[in-house]
Specification:
Elements (H helix, E strand, L loop, with lengths): L17 H23 L18 H12 L17 H15 L2 H16 L32 H18 L21 H24 E2 L4 E2 L14 H21 L6 H18 L1 E4 L5 E4 L14 H17 L6 H15 E3 L2 E3 L8 E2 L15 H10 L13 H15 L7
Antiparallel strand pairs: 1-2, 3-4, 5-6, 6-7
Helix pairs in contact: 1-4, 2-12, 3-4, 3-5, 3-12, 4-5, 5-6, 5-7, 6-7, 7-8, 7-9, 8-9, 11-12
Amino acid sequence: MMHLSSPMPFATASPRATCWQGRAQRRSALILLCACIWWCAPARLAAYVIESMDGPITAKELDSFLDGIRGLQPQTSNAGNAMATHKSGTEIAGISRVFEATRDPRIMAQAVRFADAFCAYRNDQPKGQHTVQWTGAVEPVWPMSAEADGAGGESAMVAGHVACIAWLILDTPAMWTATVPGGDPYAYGATYKERGLTYLRMTEEVLRQYVSKYCVIPDTFTIVNPTRTPASGSPPPWNIQAMYMLPHLYAARCHDLLGDHPPELALWKGVVERYATWFVASAQYYAAADGAKVARWFYLVPPDEQRKENQGHAQHDIRGLIAAFTSGYTSVTVEQMRVFAATARHAMYRGPHQWSDNVHGSGPDRSNLKADLIPLAQWEPSLLALAGESNLLKDPHVVDGGSETCINAGFMLYTKQLLAGGPRKQ
């Protein structure tokens, strides 16, 4: 469990944190009551404040984040990838990371609003749009438009968000029996554990009926574009592969926590290992101008050297790589992770408020570093301060991320907590 820099009660992260479990249980009723009151209070928009890039998350930072997410409304359609990689997709990602860092029930009370909406508006559900997909069926997916019949990686990304919330709930046993604030509008379960198990079940439906069925070669665990015969399919770009991989990863992590062994568990873990090791092996390695070992890779698979990978796509590649490494399901090493972290610091950083748009260090300037790349700072600590310099206004220290403000704030808070002593794989 991670500690905030000022005393704040929050639930324990896992049974491993036994020295703190008693305290968390004594305080759980009080803070969950506060979460109920706070969840129901009228929303007001607030800035996301980050007081400094050093030390653990402060009470003021956490309170400002809570104020900010209260005003967010989950999207009910994935049109324009609004549930996947834009709008609500970025917001739930930022919320997830801050809960992972703090285990504060008030954060999870907001996360379930998003997961509930995503599940309720899945294509095949009563509130879904019921679009017939290329398979001829109303599949359990999230189409990218009202007419879309070819749900791809961006649809799987929504399942990944839902599965991540399931994993975070199951990894926080002190919350399992607590009642979720706001009631149970979709009959997903009154307690957090019941809600988490519902999210897991609905993720597994997506995997079994669509993503694993049509987008994974089972013998090699290779991700391919949707087809009835995956063995003859072609691999999508790296960012799309990461989106397909994530629901497999979090479903597996949930079952590892539950201690059961569904028949697909080896497949799900194999997909994670295949993505991560293939991605790392496909990169080209070289020395940056200052001598640091860095990597470059391309958008397409196999690589097309005319299609350099840019930050907009690389953020998803790297989110997938970090999640895979952290899960322990891959043989990717710490040294290999350090090379990708060095790439952001030594190849992409050009100076204050200047980053290359491409991972190669080429292309036009960007004024900031995409949020999903910020956690690379756990292997290149100076990267966090440079990201903060670019992503924060100077006075006051509020996050300046436009439509991605929540995810920027969330990933910076999560990363500063990691660097302040939060758990990470060494």
